[in-house]
Amino acid sequence: MHDTIRPLVEMTGVTRIFPGVTALDNVNFQLLAGEVHVLFGENGAGKSTLISILSGVYPQSTGSVKLMGEEVSFGSVADAKAKGVAAVFQEFSLVPTLSVAKNIFLGSEPMIGPFIDRRKMEVEARKLFADLGFDIDVRAPVATLSRAQQQMTEIAKAIHSNAQVLILDEPTASLTERETKTLFRIVSEAKARGVGIVYISHRIQEFSVIADRITVLRDGKLIGTVAIADTTPSSLVEMMTGRAVGEIYPTIACADAPQVVMSVRGLHAWGVAGVDIDVRAGEVLGVAGLVGSGKSRAFRAALGLMSIDAGSVILNGKDLTGAATRKFLQQGVFYLPPDRKTEGLILSATARQNINLSLLFRDDVSTSTGLSHARMNSLSTGIARKVDLTDAFMARPVANLSGGNQQKALFGKGFGRDYEIYIFDEPTVGVDMGTRAALYRLIKELAEAGKAVVVISSDLPEAMNLAHRLLVFAGGRISAEYIGADINENNVLKAFFDTKGEAA
Amino acid sequence: MTVNTETIAGPESKTSFAPWRILRSLFLRAGVLPFFLIAALLIFSLASAQFLTVQNLTNVARQSVYLVLVSLGQMVVLITGGFDLSVGTAIALTSVVSATAMVAASVLFPDAVWIVISLGILSGLGAALTIGMINGVGIAIFGVSPFIMTLGVQSVGAGVALFITGGVPISGLPFEFGDFFGFARIAGIPVPVLLALIAILVMWIVMNRMRTGTQIYAIGGNIKAAHLSGIHTKRTLFISYLTCSLLASMAGILLTARVESGETNLGGTITLESIAACVIAGVSLRGGIGRVENVVLGAFFIVLVQNGMNVMQIGSYMQMVLLGSLLILAVVIDQLRYRMLLGKR
User: Fold this and answer.
1) What is the interface size between A and B, counted as CB pairs within 8 Å?
2) A297: closest CA among A279, A314, A277?
3) How far is B229 from chain A (nearest CA, A)?
4) Among A142, A407, B58, B106, which has the minimal tally of Cβ within 10 Å of its Cβ?
């Protein structure tokens, strides 16, 4: 049935243009039956665009997509699914209010006449999970499940459609080691059945276990496709970044005797189970951990963005436990939120308006005679120079800027007031190489000017390379702290999964 | 506030711990409605001996038919994550159009009274169908916010209804129309109640046992996920608004039969009442959540409160104040419940 020579999927010269951005530029991609083909690249390299085209989310601008030798153009995700291409997206495509079984069969419910056959639906859903070796209550609403369970529901949903092509977008990002093993077993079984699997992951250490071939993308362009046997992790990273490892990270000088400016003690909050943190001036504190490890939540709770169950937050000797975020800003703490689109920026406003917002509480801007727009604009122009945004970009609505320029605007908000502490939560998510280097330079300047800098990042090399001191979170606690030379991948990865004494 | 209603509901809760926990879990699972219902029954039966009589409660059941129908429609659009402010207009327009059609048709077919009635009903339903279609096109296809779309349509429909009648009620409807749809009984059950029971049953089956229902829940729960699962989200939204208008129209026909004339002011306060009935019954304003049986009970509760206030001789102006407050209180308590549910995780 499966012609092993004829590829399952053949994409040739595929280009996708969004207003102002070429997200995918003349890329060729081939998937064979029974292979796991990894897509590798930075955020914004075009991986998501490629799988979106392949799974029918939107069509390519030019180029051809062939499925089993036949030219196809999918009208919708459902259309692609009907033709045998199923995708598990990074953003969950589950309905939180519906049950697991209903989610799996959504759009393809078993019917008796005009009625849904609920019994059959539940029986089949149970059987599906039994085959996957995963224990889950199929009647429970998805909203009540853990992230890993939701992930497994997604995968079950894709597998149930009997797809010939299975697309997995960072499936292990929120899974524990044991769950990851289960997933790999499921993937190998699908592979043995002749299913072709497109697998997106940032975890190089997984590739030798699971991958057959790897295609590397950078800035929307195809860099190359290599067999797993012919490559090494470091050459992959070099392909991905376009330069040798470590080159984009600046060397940041650490203050001689960094003074503690903010200290968190015994912090308990939702998903944070007792955390002590010292933030010191003139030092970069890296914070690493998996999604859901509590690394971001600990700081969000400390800064009044989540409610604190227990513990204290002391800022420059002042007790600010449970104070409003506004108070922290007034006291010189800048927080850069991880999701610029939902928390960071007003998308419909221009970059200048966004940056001006951070100037609103300055005494030289809000004067007794009202707001001084001239003063505000001259200040924001100065900030634009600092973060490397041209006047043309400053005048455009943020929604029309590239991810990199959006992030620059977000960083720009950090220079509106004289902050002493900078907490960057995922500072370079979805940002291209050039901008990353520029943002790292800003971080370097801040730290060397004696500011306290915290870099919370799911991008491990970033957290490791910038940090003078690195905290690793696992299961809501700090599982390890490394200083200077002890910060290396081996140590950190071990600490990632070290959840001993986990409460929740 | 929660504490108040719960104490009313179970005075023994102070003395022992277990009943308190049961109340808490009942509140989390079923929302505020059981507590409101019990509180209302207690207050009104204490205030008046006539309240808790079979006759009065039957009366309430009969009166609640209209609100039940409209609330079922409102529930559907609330579950999709929208709402419909034009249900009152759909009722008024149905009433005016069906009455006008019947008066005109009875000139053409003076001897065939049931043809006249059928034509009238079909024109009324057709008028509401148009309203539902305009709402559906605007919201599903052009992406207008449900608030603006249905607010606009509400004004348009009310204007058209007044224009048709010149503000004067249309009388001279066939006697059989009012007699059958307003007052007749089949097997001892009033016809409006019977029709409402059928509507409830159909809606329950659609929402719980049919694909359309699941799709409506899905788009309200997460429209992007629904789209990615291959659901035709625009069509489903369109159907939802159509269903809402048709259910309102059904109420409009029954009300017209009851008053035996076509009137523009029939749907006056029903928009607010139907939203209140749904919210009190635990339909989430965020979409995706809501159950048919609870909404029926919610509508019943609203009419029960109105009846109780009448029995207690509370003036209609004060009733407006109380009803609005009840709606806000229900939403506030719903927020508390949401927070408690999140806190439990």
Assistant:
1) 73
2) A277
3) 6
4) B58
A119's tokens: 């019994």
Class of domain A9-241: alpha beta
- Best of B222, B224, B227, B236 to disrupt the A interface (most A CBs within 10 Å) is B222
Beta pairing class for A260-269 and A196-200 = unpaired
- Check B210 against A114: CB less than 8 A apart: yes
Token pair of A92 as six digits: 């969950």
Reported as a single tens digit per residue, the pLDDT across A335-375 is 999 888 888 899 888 999 999 998 888 888 888 888 888 88
Q: Do B205 and A95 touch (CB under 8 A)?
A: no
Do the domains A9-241 and A261-332+420-504 sit in the same CATH topology, yes or no?
yes
> Which residue ranges make up each domain of chain A?
9-241, 261-332+420-504, 339-418
- Which CATH entry fits the domain spanning B31-344: 3.40.50, 1.10.3470, 3.90.120, 1.10.357? 1.10.3470
> How far apart are the C-alpha atoms of B283 and B216, rounded to whole Å?
13
- By three-state DSSP, how is residue A267 classified? strand
* 8 Å CB contact between A92 and A122: no
Q: Which of B214, B284, B345 sits opposite A109 (nearest CB)?
A: B214
Residue A245 has pLDDT above 60, yes or no: no
Across the interface, whether the CB atoms of A97 and B225 are under 8 A apart is answered: no
What residues in B contact A144, CB-CB < 8 Å?
A: 345
Q: pLDDT (tens digit, 9 = 90+) per residue, A264-311?
A: 999 999 889 999 999 999 999 999 987 778 899 999 999 999 889 999
Is there a contact between B276 and B320 (Cβ–Cβ < 8 Å)? no
Query: From residue B47, how far is each of B40, B44, B300, B315, B324 by CA, in Å?
Result: 10, 5, 19, 15, 22
Testing the interface with A: which of B224, B227, B228 to mutate, by most A Cβ within 10 A? Answer: B228
Q: Where are the domains of chain B?
A: 31-344
Give me the CATH topology for the region A261-332+420-504. Answer: Rossmann fold (3.40.50)
pLDDT of A43 over the 90 cut: no
Interface pTM (ipTM) of the complex? Answer: 0.76
Whole-angstrom distance, CA of residue A330 vs CA of residue A420: 11
